[in-house]
Amino acid sequence: ELSVSLLAVIVIVCGLALVAVFLFLFWKLCWVPWRNKAISSNLAVLQSEAGCNKENMADKLKDTGAISFLEAAVKISHTSPDIPAEVQMSMKDHIMRRTRIQRQTTEPASSTRHISFKRHLPRQMHVSSMDYGMDPPAVAEQPTSIGRIKPELYKQKSVDSEDPKKEAAKTCGKINFTLKYDYENETLTVRILRAFDLPAKDFCGSSDPYVKIYLLPDRKRKFQTRVHRKTLNPTFDESFHFPVPHEELVSRKLHLSVFDFDRFSRHDMIGEVILENLFEASDLSRETSIWKDIQYATTESVDLGEIMFSLCYLPTAGRLTLTVIKCRNLKAMDITGYSDPYVKVSLLCDGRRLKKKKTTIKKNTLNPTYNEAIIFDIPPENMDQVSLLISVMDYDRVGHNEIIGVCRVGVNAEGLGRDHWNEMLAYPRKPIAHWHPLVEV
């Protein structure tokens, strides 16, 4: 009985051992290859999805931070293929959310208000995104070779760029005219007789002079002599009549501007004469001959006044606000010594006027106050292609409105106009105000 029970135990142990061996072989041959195959297929799917996401994100984003974050996510999927599906989904949502945030900050969507602006743009314009960077672009150095001419070494000081003080000391000749006042008709007669020893403005050594005559402060009524060809000593002998009351003669000034006529370009100014006190120069009751030196000038010395306005730009809304604050010391355009000024603002793009807006009219003043805002919708990518032309106008009930003076602001403007524009772009959402002198058109 003992041997039989011992034999039974041995048989049972051997059977259990065989079953264990059989189960181990079955797991080794069937279960492990199937599991490895599933893991490798999941890994391949994750790698392909990560690769596609990486390419799309690299194309859409230029931000190195987002790309490095994405590469780190891909590396995690390589080393740990058993990441749960919920963690993978949350990781993808985080990456896509970060992508949307950065796209909103770098590429703002165009508002429907800007569609009309873009419709006015020329077809050949290449629209580029705006760059607020202050660092100048790197300029590639041009390789130099022996024998190449360097123009900067051969620059000479041109005749036109001489010292203004020396230019002012130059003699511009003399002019002879007469004054006479008709008390009965209340008319001042100015007779331009001749000019002597004028400077040569043409290459042939002569000039084509003529004279403009104003009785300030009224600049609406002006007269002009005939043009005399190729002479430095012209004889005009022309008379001009200014109706003016006798009591106003004390406050009037006679302004003579001598020009050189040019058929193909802007006329060159030779000089000017300003006679402030008419009674000291002549008793006006009889015709009196007067000789005056012509003072050197490049433009008519007329103070047109100044305008103050502020600029403010909102990049997210694409809105440019120009607030016309006030003007001071404007040029008098009426006989009364005053003007009826208003301000007209034109939006220019490549020399074409896209839009214009106006302020209200202020009557009989040379120092108007407006405090009126003018708004233009301009996308951020077009701010480097536009400029504003601010014109101060004199309103006339009868006839055409006349320009008192203008100023311009923009990237392509000069001096203060360019500096004001760049300061506005450097400090968005902040109104920047400056005084601007008015110049002639």
From TrEMBL:
* SMART domains in the cross-refs: C2
Q: Which UniProt keywords apply?
A: Calcium, Cytoplasmic vesicle, Membrane, Metal-binding, Repeat, Transmembrane, Transmembrane helix
Q: What is this protein called?
A: Synaptotagmin-6
Q: Which PANTHER family match?
A: SYNAPTOTAGMIN, SYNAPTOTAGMIN-6
Q: What SUPFAM superfamilies does the database record attribute to this sequence?
A: C2 domain (Calcium/lipid-binding domain, CaLB)
Q: Which Pfam families match?
A: C2
Its record classes its membrane topology as: Single-pass membrane protein
Q: What is its main location?
A: membrane
Domain named C2 is located at 171-292, 303-436
